[in-house]
TrEMBL record:
Gene3D superfamilies, per database record: P-loop containing nucleotide triphosphate hydrolases
CDD domains, sorted: DEADc (cd00268), SF2_C_DEAD (cd18787)
Source organism per UniProt: Congregibacter variabilis
Domain Helicase C-terminal residues, every copy: 229-377
SMART domains: DEXDc, HELICc
Highest taxon of source: Bacteria
Ranges of residues in domain DEAD-box RNA helicase Q: 1-29
Keyword tags: ATP-binding, Helicase, Hydrolase, Nucleotide-binding
UniProt motif Q motif: location: 1-29
Identification of the protein by name: DEAD/DEAH box helicase
GO molecular function, one term: helicase activity
Length: 435
């Protein structure tokens, strides 16, 4: 199977080949003919499977057979949850439409609206937008939806998670009812199916992988370590394994800033990317990371979706996500488009329940890899006690002045607790199925 077999225009096939792609992915093979036929579709695919091209290519083909959009008109609307994803999708629209006479634009918040209004003034065939900024521009009268032919809800599950459902409803109310609607999501949750029932007509479901699965091209591992030594372990791995390009995930914006600062102090080219950064700063960091001038991009989950980085080899979960599904999206940044990759999770004792939840979700056991010199101390030191690293021996707090019988009972209880925690922390050591 190649792109010619999918019935695409030669100009589109040429643009795809220019990117170095010769064979379509499963989601593209299933989706492109349906979109070309005008079907509404609800598609689920794990990240990194080429789903953007699965809707961009057939949409561009449909648009190519009709005249250009008129003043302020939009013929195709692609809604995305984040600025980064909007930029990535728009880049794909321009890349694949390189040999076609079509106009496109992208609009999102965090930047001046005037240039976006100017771009919409003459009309665009494809508009990629985040919901909030699009509503603002619509209220200003900068966009005309009367000629809209296709609506795409990309990363629909993420938009629901981020609370965009009310904005989406307000936008859809302004669109023609006689349109084609495509919904792409990493998961088929009940909420997603309910949304699809409201906006899609006679939709065809397309699913190319089990829900919430992780790609087999990503080698996943977890490294047990004490919380106080996570940064030291990361620096050790960077030095020992000579990683050249690493996307590091932290749970909080403050954590991303602090880790980025420590990595800079250790001599690594690193920068944080999260919601508190201006759009220009975020785009600059992303561009530097893609070009190779930035070795480490330290991100919160705002970057878990939509970052399209060719052949990204390493993803590090410095903090495990609180929501298991976010783990799938995080590690989906590597192992894309047929390339292999690795995911490394730093595992503290407190993170074990989170990892268990992830393993239940993906139906896979993530092997633990112990790094010499970073063996965790299974029970934390008492207040005021200094932890000097992996060479420290586990110390026992002084027994209070109590009868010997009480002291023995206390020690027995402590030993039982320690053994239980040690078992939970260090097992399993090999991959397999989770029951």
């Amino acid at each position: 199977m190649n792109f010619d077999n999918l019935g695409l225009l030669p100009d589109l096939v040429k643009a795809v080949n220019d990117r170095g792609y010769s064979q379509p992915t499963p989601i593209q093979i299933k989706s492109i003919p349906l979109v070309l036929d005008g079907q509404d579709i609800l598609a689920a695919a794990q990240t990194g499977t080429g789903k953007t091209a699965a809707f961009v290519l057939p949409i561009l083909q449909r648009l190519a057979f009709v005249g250009l959009a008129r003043r302020k008109q939009v013929r195709t609307l692609i809604l995305t949850p984040t600025r980064e994803l909007a930029s990535q999708v728009h880049e794909s629209v321009e890349t694949y439409g390189h040999y076609l006479d079509l106009r496109s634009a992208v609009v999102f918040g965090g930047v001046r609206a005037e240039p976006q209004i100017a771009a919409l003034e003459r009309g665009v065939d494809t508009l990629v937008a985040t919901p909030g900024r699009l509503l603002d521009l619509a209220q200003r009268g900068a966009v005309d939806f009367s000629a809209l032919e296709v609506l795409v809800l990309d990363e629909a599950d993420r938009m629901l998670d981020m609370g965009f459902i009310h904005d989406i409803r307000r936008i859809v109310e302004q669109l023609p009812k006689n349109r084609q609607t495509l919904m792409f999501s990493a998961t088929f949750s009940k909420e997603i199916r309910l949304l699809a029932g409201q906006y899609l007509v006679d939709a065809v479901s397309v699913e190319v992988a089990p829900a919430n699965s992780t790609t087999e091209l990503v080698d996943q591992m977890a490294y047990p370590v004490d919380p106080s030594r996570k940064t030291d372990l990361l620096i050790h791995l960077l030095n020992e394994r000579q990683w050249s390009q690493v996307l590091v995930f932290c749970r909080t914006k403050h954590g991303a800033n602090q880790l980025s600062k420590k990595l800079l102090e250790a001599g690594f080219a690193a920068a944080p990317i999260h919601g508190n950064k201006s759009q220009n700063a975020r785009q600059r960091a992303l561009d530097d990371f893609k070009s190779g001038s930035l070795q480490l991009l330290v991100a919160t989950d705002i970057a878990a979706r939509g970052l399209d980085i060719d052949q990204l080899p390493e993803v590090v979960n410095f903090d495990l996500p609180a929501v298991p599904e976010d783990y799938v999206h995080r590690i989906g940044r590597t192992g894309r488009a047929g390339s292999s990759g690795r995911s490394h999770s730093l595992l503290t004792l407190e993170d074990v329940p989170l990892l268990k939840g992830i393993e239940r979700l993906i139906c896979k056991v993530i092997p633990r890899v112990q790094v010499s010199g970073f063996e965790p101390i299974d029970t934390p030191p008492s207040p005021g006690q200094r932890n000097t690293g992996a060479s420290d021996k586990r110390q026992t707090a002084p027994v209070s002045r109590a009868p010997e019988q009480m002291a023995r009972r206390s020690r027995g209880s402590a030993d039982e607790s320690h053994n239980t925690l040690k078992h939970r922390f260090n097992t399993p050591k090999k991959t397999g199925s989770v029951g």
